[in-house]
Write a structure and sequence with these properties.
146 residues, mainly alpha
């Protein structure tokens, strides 16, 4: 985020847009989690090794945990900015959950590192899906996309 624009109004506009998307992403994430609780995950394909099933469950739990943690840390960070980052994409006001500006640097680092770990787990998830499709030749990828 810090490299998108020089310091000033343009960079703040990028931050505000990023925060707005983050707020709405959090709403979608909650709705997705509710959907997942109401609709059980299909069973793993026949012949799936126990370590693969355990790994898939841990990876999915990690993805959800990191998505929630990253967005919550970002929401906290938004309340510590010089200019308020309290609007979502639809221009609805979002209350700040943290306003103590002395926490800004810690929240910024937390948000950044959670996002890096989340991105790494997403890459691992994509590679695992491609492994299922091209190496194991099962329907896991088609099930994910269809």
């Amino acid at each position: 985020m810090t490299h998108l624009a020089p310091r000033g109004p343009e960079r703040l506009a990028h931050y505000a847009g990023h925060a707005a998307l983050g707020y709405d992403f959090l709403v979608l994430l909650v709705l997705r989690q509710l959907w997942r609780w109401l609709n059980p995950v299909p069973a793993a394909p026949a012949g799936t090794a126990r370590w693969e099933d355990t790994g898939a469950r841990l990876a999915h739990a990690g993805l959800y945990l990191l998505m929630f943690a990253t967005t919550i840390a970002g929401w906290g960070l938004a309340g510590t900015m010089r200019a308020p980052m309290n609007k979502d994409v639809f221009n609805l006001t979002v209350p700040a959950i943290v306003t103590d500006k002395s926490l800004h640097d810690a929240l910024e680092d937390l948000h950044k590192w959670l996002a890096y770990v989340l991105a790494a787990l997403v890459v691992l998830h994509v590679l695992a899906a491609l492994r299922h499709h091209f190496i194991k030749k099962n329907a896991v990828l088609r099930r994910m996309t269809g």
